[in-house]
Each structure stands twice: as C-alpha cells, then as structure tokens.
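anyone seen this seq b4? input:
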Amino acid sequence: MNTSSLRAASAIAALSAVFAFPASAAVTSFSAMLSNVGEPVATSPATGSATVELDDVALTIDVLINFVNLTANASAGHIHCCTAVAGAGSVGVAQGFTDFPSVTSGTYAKVFTLDAAKFASLATGIAAGKAYVNIHSPGLYAGGEIRGFLTAAVPEPETYALMLAGLGLIGTATRARRAQSA
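predicted toks r here
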C-alpha cells in the first residue's frame, strides 16, 4: 500500500468516526425486564419490558413499556430514582408517566421533556443502575406490582460493523507501514 492509499484509508477512518460519535453521544438506550422481583408483595404473575431512551441534546426521555397479566387495571407507572445501591432498594418517584393506561395488559409510549437539572439527575441515576420502572395496581399490589432496573441496552449491529471497519483500516495501515519499513 503506497502513502496516498494509506492517507486515504486514514481519512476514511477519521470521517467515519466523526459521523459516528454525534449519533451515539446524543441518545442513550436503557432497558428493563419487568417482574415481581423486589416488589413489597412479590407474587404477581405479571411481566413486561421497558425501553427508555435519553436524549442529552433535546433533554428528553422516550419511554416504551409493554406489560401483561396485571392482577387489576394499572393505577400508576413511573421511574423511581435513585437507590442507594445499584439494582436494589426502593426510592421516590423521579418521573411519573402521565396518561398511563388503566388496563391489565397493554403498551405505553410517551416522550417527556425535562429541565436540565432534572434530566442530569435522572440520567446519572439510570446510567448508574439506580433507577427502575414500576407499575402499580390497586389492592394487594398498591405498593407496586412489577418493576425492573434499567440497564444499558446492547449496541445495535451497525455499531459493531462500524467498529470492525475501523479496526480493519487500522490493521491495513499498520501492515502498510511495516511493509514500507522493511
């Protein structure tokens, strides 16, 4: 590989990095599997999943929740933050879910815009594993029927593809330098 090819490969790698970083810096995804584990009365048959995306430019929280088999119609849903220990404990409500559906199985999707201080506090707690999504129903499960601590979502395949392409270019550049030195 000649010097001009090496420069072209380096330019492509740098350009790819420039376009990749803004997309990953602005939106961060977290997810949780919802179950009765950790609830005051841990006997509910209900389950669910939650995805929360934090946009640190728009200061928004995009919430998507799916749940099934609550023992009664849902009375509330929200994010609790921030527990003293990651993945355990109970704390106050940090973000309520307005218009949460009063059903036993369903889907909830909503985007919330927060002020900078509240966003920063909640984002820090979620990233530290100290925040959980909680769904309540009346009666036996008034203290919470199902919950799940939010954890970082697994990167999409495109993220791995971009990383592998970059590593490939670095390997090619390294081999070219060794060939020139020899």
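Residues 157-181 form the longest helix (25 residues). The helical segments are 3-26, 116-127, 157-181. kinda curious what u guys think
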